[in-house]
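Q: How would the C-alpha cells look for this protein?
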Amino acid sequence: MPARRLNAEKTMRQQKIAQQLAQLPTMKRQELQSLWQNLFGRQPSSRLRRETLVPILGYRIQGKACGGLKESLARKLHALAEDGSTGRKPVVHSMLRPKIGTRFIREWNGRLHEITVLENGYEYDNHTYRSLSEIAHLITGTKWSGPDFFGTKRTSRKAIA
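A: Here is the predicted structure in C-alpha cell form.
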C-alpha cells in the first residue's frame, strides 16, 4: 500500500510540474517577473527578454522539484564563468586535454608518427607545437582536425545513444 501511495504522490507532483511548465509561455511579463522573484529571491534584470525568462524559469521549476545540479557541477560552472569574465583560458580546456606524457601514434602513408602531450603543447619530431591540428597539417599537407586525425575526438552522448 505505501508504494502505491508514493507512486500516486510522485505522479501528482509530476503533473503539477508539467502544468506549471505548460503555463509559462502564456503568462504575462509581470506574472513571469513575480514567479522569478519567488523562485530566485530577486527581480530579474529588466533587460531579459520574455523569450529568455520562460526557459530559465522552466529550468528552475524543474530543478527545485527534482533536486537541481550536483554541487560539484555547480562549482565547475561558476569557475568557468569567472574565467570567462577575467579573460583567462577556460577550465574546460584543461579538463578535456589528455594528461601530460600521453603519446599518440598514427601511421600515415607508410610512416609512423609519434606525438607526446606536453604541459604547453605537443612534441612531434623534436619540435613543440600548440595543437594537434598543426601537427596533422604538417604530416598530411592539408587542413585536418587534429583530434579527428589522431582519433582523440570525444563523441557526444547523443551519438552514443
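DSSP finds eight helices and four strands in the chain.

Confidence is low (pLDDT under 50) at residues 156-161.

Upvote if useful.
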